[in-house]
Amino acid sequence: MATEDWQATNRALWEERVAVHLAPGGYDLAALRAGSGALDPLVEAVLGEVAGLRVLHLQCHIGHETLALAQRGAAVVGLDFSAAAVAAARGLAEELGLAARFVEADLYAAPTAIPEPASFDQVLVTWGALPWLPDIRGWARIVAWFLKPGGRLVLAEQHPAALVFDDAAGTADRPGWLVPYFEAAPVVLEATEDYANPAANLTATRETTWMHPLSAVIGALIDAGLRLERFEEHPRIPWRMFRGLTRDAEGLWAWPDRPWLPLGYTLVCAKG
Asked: Does residue 272 fall inside a structural domain?
């Protein structure tokens, strides 16, 4: 079960990873610094044209994807609960000379931190965001609250079917069972490796996450007043989620022989 300090331990985990992701072996920011920042191919396939749009990136971490959109002419706002991540994002924006706003706040406090209802053309949520949230219906209501009529949510996320498995419970080339797909209780683990740099020496390792089946995510968005426009499952993902995955020509990680189970999904919803 989750302890009362799950928010503090999760925040400590992400605070520590900011330095890891900015250091050599972490995130590759070369293209962003060269003025040609891009998101991964799965997100790019559903993102659409952003020039002239007002975009809110929830759980933006160090803001590298947020700033890639600013380079394309979007007016961007990024939100994250980590002070270190927000500071890093602001530093990158200043370094690159990009107009971007970054706000430090918990996701569920976003409407108070950014009191601008129905003011964004797009809300962006990318990779590894939803499992950290206990209340998926509350998240969906917040997304809808921020979107203008006709505005779009673009979501790219780990597939919950893949989150059933874990390397530690499996073999050298196949993960094993970790948690039931419909698990309602918090999932508390010790994260011994960083997903971007497995060689990093971590001290904040306790993580508390939640399983959100696809039906829960899509149902929450529909109930919040959004209309599903596009949904796709993917046998590839932008990071090495399991050690048995291999990198393909586009830089994504996939099963080496057959697409055994989906690793990610993308969806687009519109308001109204």
From this structure: no
